[in-house]
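Q: Okay, next protein. This is DJ-1/PfpI family protein from Agromyces intestinalis. I've checked the sequence twice, so it should be correct. Can you predict the 3D structure?
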Amino acid sequence: MSKILIITGDAAETLEVFYPYHRLQEAGYEVHLGAPAKRKLQFVVHDFVDGFDTYTEKLGHTWDADIALADVDPADYVAIVVPGGRAPEYLRNNEDAKRIVRYFAAQDAPIAATCHGPLLLGAAGVLEGRTSSAYPELAIDVETAGGVFENGGGVVDGALVTARAWPDNGTWMKAFLEVLAAHEASAAEAA
């Protein structure tokens, strides 16, 4: 069974972790959560409330990380997923998180990121010349990292699949599963 790594941490958006986690399991993948440390993580719930200039945040579910990022051998995985929430804000400073992202970008292997997830991709230096979605207020961050921002729910640029936030989960994972299938078919032909 092929394995996929979700790179996350405390304050990740619950829906952006759980939806890909369960959807990828349903598709037959073994899914691991990688975080700065192997411990219980506290996720959050972001919502959009009339009258607020930005989203609100409440405590969400907790979930155990399967592996510390320092212990990840990227070659053990066929793809990575980077959920949003606030976790990418500090993960972009984590050398192991950036090492893993760079490995997948160099291999042209599937990468999915949503919401604030592209902050980690930008910090890893893999958005240069790439088209990426993100939470719309992060358009400037995508562009500062050398990328082209596209305000969409399942933006595909080669093996990179990005989205704006949890309301895009369906279109984001649909596009990512198509990229995964094409990548695995190509790998099988090459073998």
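A: Here is a summary of the prediction. The chain has one domain: 3-190. The chain has a mean pLDDT of 97.
Q: Noted. On to the next one.
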